[in-house]
Amino acid sequence: MAIKLLQRLLQSMLVLLATGFLAFLIMSFAPDPVDNIAGDYATTEDRARIRAELGYDRPFLVQYGEYMVKFVQWDLGSSLRTSEPVAELIASRAPATLELVLVSTIMTLGAGIWLGIYTGVHRRSKRTQAILTSSLLGISMPTFLLGLLAIYIGAVELGWFPASGRKAVDTWMWTSSLVSLEGWRSIFMPALTLSIFNVGLFIRLVRADVLEIRTMDYIKFARARGLPEKTINNKHVLPNAIMPVINVAALNIGVMIAFSLITESVFQWPGLGLMFIQSISFSDFPVMSAYFLLVAAIFIGLNLLADVLLSIVDPRIRRGE
Amino acid sequence: MKTKNTWLKAATIGAALTASATAMAGNDLRWGMTGDAISLDPQGVLGAVEIIFLRNVYDGLMVVDGDNQPMHGLAESHEVLADGTIRFTLRKGVKFHGGQDFTADDVVFSIARTQGEKSAFKSMVAAVDKAVKVDDYTVDIIMKRPDPLILSNLANAYIMDSGWAAEHGVEEAPGGANKGLYTENNMNGTGMLKLVERQPTISSTLVRNDNFWGDATDYYPGNIDRVITTTIGSASTRVATLLSGDLELVTEVPLPDLGRVDSDSNLKIEGTAQLRTIFFGFNLTTDNLVSTEGNPFAKPEVRKAVSVALDRGLIQKKIMRGVSVPTTILAYPGTQGHTDALAAVEKGNPKKAKEMLAAAGYPDGFSVQLDCPNNRYVNDESICQAAVSMLAKAGIKVNLNALPKDQWMPLLLEDKSDFYMLGFGTPTNDSLFTFGHIYNQGPFQSGYANAEVTALIGEAAVEADAAKRTVMMEKISQITKDDMAVVPVHYQMINWGMTNGLSIPVDFSNLPNFRYAVMQ
Fold first, then answer.
1. A291-297 contacts: CB < 8 A, separation 24 or more?
2. A69: burial class by Cβ within 10 Å (0-12, 13-18, 19+)?
3. What DSSP element (H or E) covers B494?
4. Fewer C-beta within 10 Å: chain B N or C terminus?
5. pLDDT of A134 higher than 80
C-alpha cells in the first residue's frame, strides 16, 4: 500500500513537470510582456534592454529549466503586473475564490438535492416539467450571459446587490465576505451565477437516483408494510439518493476553483480566476505558470485522493487485480 | 503612508481606514477604470493611468493647471539665466506625506533618477544636462540644449524624497528586471492626495492631504476628500456598476452604452476630442513588400489615392456613431500644428482614387495585407473593415489581418507590416512628440524620410518663440499632408459617464484631474 502510494506520488511529480513544460511551451508562442511593461512610448533600445533584463531573449528550454529549479525551491518570482511576490499574490486571492466556491457549492447542493427529490417523487407533475425545462435553460446558457443578466436584474433594476466587486472584512485568518451583511450581498450573485449550471446537473443526478431507488425491492417492501409515503421518502429514498451526489460534489469543487474565471471576470470578483485572466492579458508569465501548476496540483491531488479512497473501499484495487 | 509587506496587512489597514472614513463622511469620488496602473513608481511606466496617479500624489517643480498648462509647483518661481540655465527657487516648509522635509537635495536626486537609464520618463528631461544645488532652496537646471517645452516636461519629472528612496533601496527606477520594487505599490509625494490603501489590479484609495502646500484658489479648487479607484475590466459590468450607483465616474464608456448612460436620470455623459489620432501607415523601409509585388506605397500618388478613396465622414457616421472627429493630419486639435483648414476632410471619391492609381502605374490596382488591431482602439476592426471595402472600390484589394494588440504591436515594431492601422497619442500635450515618432525616429517609424520635415522637427524642438513655432508646426502638417506620409482617419472622442452631481474638467488628455473636481 505504502509503495503503491509512493508510486502514485512519483507519477504525480512527473505530471506536474509535464504540465510545467506544456505551460512554458504555450507561453513561448505568446507575445512576451515587454511591450506592456515598457508602455507605448518606449524606444526600441529600452524594449530590448527590458527583454534582456527579464531573460525573455533566451531559449525556451533554458527559461523552463530555470523556472523549475526555482519552483522546487518555492521561489515563484514576482508578478510583472502588480510587482507582488507570486506566492503572496496567490495566497491573497485564494480566499475570495474558496469562499465563492463554498457558498456556490452549498447553493448547488441545497437547490439541486431539494429540486431533484421533488422532481423524482412527483415524476409527472406540471411543476416538475417546469423545473426540468428551466434547469435545462440554466445548463445551456453561457455563464457570462447569466452573470450580466444577474447584474442587470439584481443591481441595476432592483438595486438589492452591488453590481461588481467584493466587500470583505479582515478576520483572524483571511479577509472574508461571510461575516458581514455587505459581504453576503456582494457574494450572493457571483455564487448564484456559478451554481446555476451545477444545479441543473445535480437535479438530474438526484432525480435519476430517486427514480431508480423507488423501484428497488426494499422500497416496495416498505410500502407493503404500510409505511406512509413521506416516511419512505425521508428515511429510505433521500439518504440513498444523495450519497453518490456528495462524492460528485466533492470532486466538483476542484473543477469550480479552476473554472470560476468567467464568473469572476464578469463580477470583477478578485479571486484566482480573475488573477489568471488579468495575467493572460498582460502576458504576466510568472503568475500564469504558477496558476497552471496550481490547478494541475489541485486536480492531481483530488485524483490521488479519489484513488486512495477507492482502494480502501475496493479490496480488488488494493491487491492490484 | 503606511508600510505594508503583505496584502493581508494592507487589507487590515484598508478596512480600518474604510471604517473611520465612512464615519467621516466627506466627498467620495469612486472612479471605475479599465485597467489599473502597472507601476506607481514616479519614473516607472509612462502611461495614462500611471500619470493620473503620479500627478495627484507627486509634484514636479512645475505642475499642470486645469487647462494642462504648466504653473509653478514645488518651485515658487524661476528665472532663465544668460547661459540658458533655469534657476528655480523652491517652496519652503513643504513636507512629504511621510513627514520628510522637501529640499534642493530631493530635486537633484529626483531629476537624476528621471534621467537614469531605467527611467521611463527620461524623454521628459532629454534636454537637461543636470540639476545642481545652489543652496537648500535654490536649484539650477543646466540645459544641454534649449527646450521650448521644458516647463511642461518638468511637470512630468516627479520629485521624491531622497532619504526615503535610500531607506527602501529604490534609488533607481524599476526598468524591467527590477520589478517588485517598493515604490511600485507605495507612494510618498508632496501632492494633494496621498495613497492610503492599495490592492494592485483591484482598488486603491487616495485621501486628501491636509498639509498640502498649495492654496485652494490655484491648486485645489475642488472639494474631493477621497478618491477610490476600482478596476473593472469588463465593459458591461463597468457600465452596470455606474448605473447601479456604485461609482461616480467612468472614463471609458463604450459607444453602444452612451445612450443608456445618458438617458439615466442620475447620470450624464461629457465628451471632447482626444489626443489620439487613428491613421493608416505604410512600410516605406523596403522596396519589396511581403504581401504584394514591389512597394506601391513608395509612390506618394498611391498613398494619396488611399486617402481619397477613404470616406471618413461615413466612418464617423456609421461606425463611430458620430463620436469621432474626422481629420487628414496627425496634429491634435488645440495644439500647435493643427488648423481646421489643414484637417478639413473631403468626401470619399473612389473614381478619382482609381484614376490616381492608374496615373501612378497601377491601372488594375494591387492587393496588399492590412494589419489591424482588434482590441486596441475604439471600433478598430470595424474601421479597418470599412476601409477594406472603400479601397476595393478604388481597385486596391486588401486582405484584412485583424489581431489582438499583443500580436499586432510586434509586427509594427519590427517593420514586418506592409500596411497597418495605428493610433497615436502624446504624453506632452504637444504634437511635436507625435511628429518625431511617426515622421522621424522612434519605434513606430515607418521609413518616411523628408529632409525638410526632419529639419523642421529639429528646429521646432528648440524654438522658444510660440508664433514662430506655430508656423513651423503647421508647415510640418502641410508637407506631410501633401505627401500623405500616413493617412489619418479621425481623432477619437473621450466620453466620460458621471453622476449629475459631479463636475470635473474633461480635456483632450483623457486624464481626470481630481484637483478640479467638484461634488455637489
1. A291/A90, A292/A19, A292/A20, A292/A22, A292/A23, A293/A16, A293/A19, A293/A20, A293/A23, A293/A71, A294/A90, A295/A257, A295/A258, A296/A15, A296/A16, A296/A19, A297/A16
2. exposed
3. strand B487-499
4. C
5. yes
Q: Which residues of B touch A168 (CB under 8 A)?
A: 11
Task: Answer yes or no: are the C-beta atoms of B308 and B357 closer than 8 Å.
Answer: no
Lookup: cell for B94: 513643504
Cell readout for A241 is 439518493
Q: Which amino acid is at B169?
A: G
Q: Looking at chain A, which residues constitute the CATH 1.10.3720.10 domain(s)? A: 90-282
What structural domains and CATH numbers belong to chain B?
Answer: 7-261+500-519 (3.40.190.10), 274-492 (3.10.105.10)
Q: In a 10 Å sphere around its CB, with 0-12 CB exposed, 13-18 middle and 19+ buried, how is residue B87 labelled?
A: middle
Cβ partners under 8 Å of residue B25, min gap 6: none
**Most A CBs within 10 Å: which of B17, B234, B267, B275, as the mutation test of the A interface?**
B234
Choose the closest CB to B7 out of A39, A92, A151. A92
DSSP state, residue B145 = S
CB contact (8 A) between residue A283 and residue B406: yes
Q: How far is A105 from chain B (nearest CA, A)?
A: 24
The Cα–Cα gap between B288 and A254 comes to: 54
Mutation target vs B (from A43, A268, A272, A280; most B CBs, 10 A cutoff) = A268
**Mutation choice for A interface testing from B22, B30, B38, B276 by most A CBs within 10 A:** B38
What confidence tens digit (pLDDT) does each residue in B98-147 have? Answer: 999 999 999 999 999 999 988 889 889 999 999 999 999 999 999 999 88
Above 80 in pLDDT, residue B274? yes
Quick: pLDDT tens for B289-328.
989 889 999 999 999 999 999 999 999 999 998 889 999 9
Superfamily of domain A90-282: MetI-like (1.10.3720.10)
User: Rounded to an integer, what distance in angstroms lies between the CA atom of residue B383 and that of residue A68?
Assistant: 45
Q: Which of A30, A39, A159 sits opposite B45 (nearest CB)?
A: A39
Chain A residue numbers touching B410 (CB-CB < 8 A): 31, 35
Residue type, B140: D
Rounded to a whole number of angstroms, the distance from the CA of B8 to the nearest CA of chain A is 7
CA–CA separation, A270 and A292 (whole Å): 18
A window 272-301, beta carbon within 8 A of B: 274-275, 277-278, 281, 283
The answer for A 27-46 residues in CB contact with B (under 8 A) is 30-31, 34-44, 46
Q: Which residues of B366-386 are buried (b: 16+ CB within 10 A; e: fewer)?
A: bebbbbbbbebbbbbbbbbbb
Choose the closest CB to B38 out of A43, A81, A175: A81
Decide: B266 and B245 in contact? Cβ < 8 Å. Answer: yes
- Contact in structure between A37 and A48 (CB atoms under 8 Å): no
Which residues 6+ apart lie within 8 Å of B21 measured at CB?
A: B207, B226
φ, ψ of residue B29 in degrees (nearest 5): -115, 110
* Dihedral sign for Cα atoms in the order B316, B320, B324, B327: negative
Average pLDDT for B366-379: 91
Prediction ipTM score: 0.82
How many contacts (CB atoms, under 8 Å) link A and B? 156
pTM over 0.80: yes
- Choose from A83, A148, A173, A283 for mutation: most chain B CBs within 10 A: A83
**Cell numbers linked to B504:** 470635473
Interface residue A87 vs chain B (CB under 8 A) = no
Rounded alpha-carbon distances, angstroms, from residue B507 to B259, B501, B513? 21, 19, 9
Q: Which amino acid is at B342?
A: L
